[in-house]
Design a protein that fits this description.
The chain has about 350 residues and is α+β, with helices and mostly antiparallel strands. The chain contains 13 helices and 12 strands. Helix content is about 40%, strand content about 20%.
Amino acid sequence: MQDCKEIVEFGSMKSHFTYPEFHAPSSDSVASYGMTAARTDVLSEVLTLIRLRGELVYTAELGAPWGIRYAPGPAHFHFVEQGTLWVLAAGTEPMCLDAGDLVLLPHGNGHVIADDPGTSPTNIDWLTTQHFNRDDLSFRFGGVGMQTKLVGGFFSFEGSPLPAIMSALPTVIHIPRVPGGAQPWLAAISHFLVEEAHQPYPGSSLMISRLIDLLVIRALRSWAAGHAQRGGWLGGLGEQRIGRALSAIHGDPFRRWTVQALADIALMSRSIFAERFVSTVGEPPLHYVTRWRMTIAADLIRSGGLKVTEAAQRVGYASDAAFSRAFKAHFGHAPSEAKR
């Protein structure tokens, strides 16, 4: 088996937003939004909208040779407690993880983990019927070679406007270990996850779900902090000035924003801000504003029970026709079809 050092390494929130009413802009954008931008938590708002929900956690003890194939479905995470493992996901290079590493696979496209990229994998469905201990949420599998211990689990996003939001997330999110082992927050969360899995007390299912939520949120925050160069809202959070503008947009999404007003909040010139926003987030500032409004509108229609006319008015459109055109341009279907 190849050593990982030989290669280059690459929570349930079901409540809805209380969306503010649309209002006209004021002239003191910097003064009125300085405090709002500092307090608005973009990551929490986005995860609330797409309704992150932790599902299940388990532990695994695996002896080489071993390989496990996960079919498309929920998103997964794998935290390596001991040994090494390889992660193989479509569209990415094989990735080797060492003890202390965490990987998230947020898109749920299916993937393989194994002791070696060449090991033939066994479907997880077969393993859960033959080797899974439901009493302590654990399984043992593989040969008598090098041992790998991991904490795994899966989670889901249940909101309606997922494509636009999820496009910001890479296929594989790697949170590497630090000198001495796992990130302290990761070691603490995984400890309590394993404890709840192995010793089920009243409320354990809810505890596990909340702890998975916490693990995913913390991992996304850690990843965003070091990947400002990646496109999308998540990467933008890692760039301080662009992050201010994103916070202002999310703090008052229905304001009649201008590029100049957002540039003032970012403390940048208009031209430099517009260029930096595109390079960081991947689209012009006002395109992002419109897309976020449409994302909110989709959720209002699908989960909030609003009629199309009501949603259009809430996000600042005086005309149903204009709203419908903008909605269809973003999602590929009419707002009347959002509930389906």
